[in-house]
Design brief:
The complex is a heterodimer of chains A (342) and B (319).
Chain A (H helix, E strand, L loop, with lengths): L1 H9 L3 H18 L6 H26 L7 H17 L5 H25 L4 H19 L9 H8 L1 E2 L2 E2 H18 L1 H11 L1 H6 L4 H27 L10 H11 L11 H24 L5 H4 L2 H23 L8 H5 L7
Antiparallel strand pairs in A: 1-2
Chain B lengths: L1 H29 L6 H26 L9 H16 L6 H24 L5 H20 L9 H8 L1 E3 L2 E2 H19 L1 H11 L1 H6 L4 H27 L11 H10 L11 H20 L4 H19 L8
Classes of the chains: A mainly alpha (342), B mainly alpha (319).
């Protein structure tokens, strides 16, 4: 037991897993035994799968020391392209969804070209592409509407072999990542994020590695966008608005460092699920306990948001505090005084 | 070396100015009324508002350490709401309104600084989470429909003009420019800000209270964005929720186009103001061209990519 604890503690993802555990315990406390119903698990996974996948995509880029702000717009693009082709262009659903996935990957290619070959700082490059991609999505499908065949969204929410389909998708993408990270390019990703110059000096084509990271990120974002489309069963040019920044929050909660070089996809998944659970917790907290307070009920949804946001800040702070890495952040290092590297 | 650096930096501002002029010329060719004094005046007014929001951003970015303030928009919105409600159209309420606006901005900046310095949350994520909190506080406070309006004097400064091409807001913009340049170039604080931006550890070892200097940058950013909200309602003469949301990312873009490096340690407020003029002129040009929202976003993004490719290319890694 102690050894397991020590191993867990030494992983950067520890904070993510602990936060998720804490979230689950609090959720059970406020929701009661209903938490354990399979219906609840299904809906939790189905609702949160898009954010989980977006967090995985973000982690790949963060490992190389980059960041992708355009994930939210890219998911919107997938949603609008898939809906517009199927509803307006009368394409077969399968073909239109495949085109949407290709479009998302192409956005990743564009980001990769800008960051790796034009050498624009990732934050600014993806900020600019966020605007372009969001504009294209708005042009493709200007107003909310459209529909998805019922087979797809019922299948998406249903269980398959005991695990929800959304869960299978997450497992598939996580396995894909596991394979990629075991390949040579997986090591290169970490090497580039750790110290780009050294990676270059040891003969790694750093530009190509970064290009690969953004392209792969674009592809996973595409899958996330398709899940979002299956979940909401309609098209909306504002649908992905929050996913870009939330995916970054999930990555931080999962214990990865924005400086690059180390991080964990498992931690990011935990971080994303924690973000999802918070909404669940706050919802049940308000339904079961706060609804008795008359003065609060009229603006309850705003208070729910406020509480959820405050919990996120608390989580971010605790995740950042437990993070230990070459940056030397963490309470121990600070208490000793001396220099700090921020 | 420093002389070359200086020349290069001035060149970047010079280039930004050139782009701004080019934009105005293109605008004039497309539609002659683009160059009318009235239109130039309103572009400059809006640029001053953006420049106000980008002033704090400039300080935070210069302070380095991946410094960025994404709470600018939310703080601006809260400042606008508080200002409108407190002033309620009465000149006598201007001072309390100003004090309240400054206090709220400083408080939020303080929380940002605490999260970044003590809890070690990366600035990007900390200020983003803070923006969410501030936005919900604003919604709770106003129940979604804020009330009030600016005092007559403030509304006068915000929307009237000294000459057709010179709104009072632009005069205010020059005052801010002067103050910011004074802070950055002539005070010890400004020097320390550049010092921690270019090398945090070296500045710390040289006796600069690096944490305090950085924290003050976030507090000043909060105050300046809150004041930006104050002038935003003065310009618009009415208030609605999330007024400042559209200013977040343009404020970062204005700073970068103005030649301030995101790596920290260099940059100037003059550049940021020119960056604001470029962004506002571009937006105005797209309106003149009758592009719809989608087209505006696409062209805005493409132009930004072009500018970024011209300006912010990092050196290639070589042996």
């Amino acid at each position: 037991m102690m050894r397991l604890w020590r191993r867990l503690r030494s992983s950067p993802a520890a904070s993510g897993y602990l936060l998720l555990l804490l979230g689950i315990i609090v959720n059970i406390l406020v929701q009661g035994p209903d938490f354990f119903t399979s219906y609840n698990f299904n809906s939790l996974l189905a609702v949160n799968a898009p954010l989980v996948l977006a967090a995985i995509a973000q982690t790949v880029v963060v490992l190389t020391g980059g960041i992708d702000l355009s994930i939210g717009s890219n998911m919107t693009l997938v949603n609008t392209v898939a809906i517009a082709l199927a509803n307006q262009g009368h394409w077969p659903v399968g073909a239109s969804w495949a085109v949407a996935l290709v479009a998302a990957t192409l956005v990743g290619v564009g980001n990769g070209l800008m960051v790796a070959y034009l050498r624009i700082p990732p934050l600014l490059a993806t900020f600019a592409s966020m605007s372009v991609v969001g504009g294209i999505a708005l042009w493709v499908w200007p107003k909310p509407g459209g529909m998805v065949p019922p087979e797809i969204y019922t299948a998406y929410g249903a269980p398959f072999l005991g695990v929800p389909v959304a869960g299978w998708i997450i497992i598939a993408v996580a396995l894909l990542w596991l394979v990629v990270s075991r390949l040579r390019v997986g090591t290169y990703l970490r090497a580039v994020g750790g110290r780009e110059r050294s990676a270059y000096a040891s003969g790694i084509n750093t530009a190509a590695v970064k290009f690969f990271a953004y392209t792969f990120c674009g592809f996973i974002t595409g899958v996330a966008g398709l899940c979002l489309t299956a979940l909401t069963a309609s098209g909306d040019p504002k649908i992905g608005l929050l996913f870009g920044l939330n995916s970054i929050a999930a990555v931080i909660l999962g214990g990865s460092s924005l400086a690059g070089g180390w991080g964990s996809v498992g931690g990011s998944i935990a971080g994303a699920l924690f973000l999802g659970l918070i909404n669940n917790i706050v919802f049940f907290l308000f339904r079961n306990f706060v609804s008795q307070i008359q003065s609060l009920t009229s603006v309850a949804s705003f208070y729910q948001q406020l509480l959820a946001n405050l919990i996120v800040i608390f989580g971010l702070a605790s995740a950042a505090l437990t993070q230990r890495g070459e940056a030397g952040s963490g309470p121990g290092r600070r208490r000793r005084g001396g220099t700090q590297h921020v | 070396m420093s002389k070359i650096n200086l020349n290069w930096r001035h060149n970047q501002i010079f280039m930004a100015g050139l782009i701004a002029v080019a934009l105005f010329i293109v605008g004039g060719l497309v539609n002659a009324s683009f160059l009318s004094p009235t239109n130039i005046g309103s572009i400059l007014s809006m640029a001053v508002l953006l420049g106000f929001a980008a002033a704090g951003q400039t300080l935070v970015v210069i302070a380095g350490g991946e410094g960025i303030d994404l709470s600018v928009g939310a703080v601006m919105s809260l400042g606008a709401v508080l200002a409108a409600q407190t002033m309620a159209g009465q000149n006598s309420n201007i001072v309390p309104a100003l004090l309240l606006v400054i206090l709220s901005g400083a408080t939020i900046g303080l929380f940002n600084a605490a999260g970044i310095l003590y809890a070690r949350v990366p600035p990007l994520v900390m200020t983003m989470a803070m923006a969410n909190v501030v936005t919900t506080i604003q919604l709770i406070y106003t129940h979604g429909s804020p009330v009030g309006m600016p005092a007559p004097i403030i509304a006068f400064i915000g929307s009237r003009r000294l000459f057709p091409f010179l709104p009072w807001l632009v005069v205010l913009g020059f005052i801010i420019l002067f103050l910011m340049q004074f802070i950055l170039r002539r005070t010890v604080y400004g020097q320390q800000l550049y010092a921690i931006g270019s090398n945090y550890n070296a500045a710390y070892l040289a006796g600069v209270r690096a944490g305090t200097v950085k924290g003050i940058a976030y507090i000043l950013s909060g105050i300046l964005s809150s004041l930006a909200g104050f002038w935003l309602i003065a310009y618009n003469n009415f208030v609605f929720v999330n007024m400042g949301a559209a200013y977040v990312l343009p404020s970062v873009a204005a700073v970068v186009i103005g030649g301030t490096s995101l790596a920290g340690g260099e940059g100037s407020y003059t550049g940021t103001l020119i960056g604001s003029v470029i962004l506002t002129a571009l937006a105005s040009l797209l309106v003149v061209l009758h592009t719809d929202e989608a087209g505006r976003q696409i062209i805005n993004g493409l132009v930004l990519i072009l500018l970024l490719a011209l300006y912010t290319r990092q050196p290639a890694i070589r042996q």
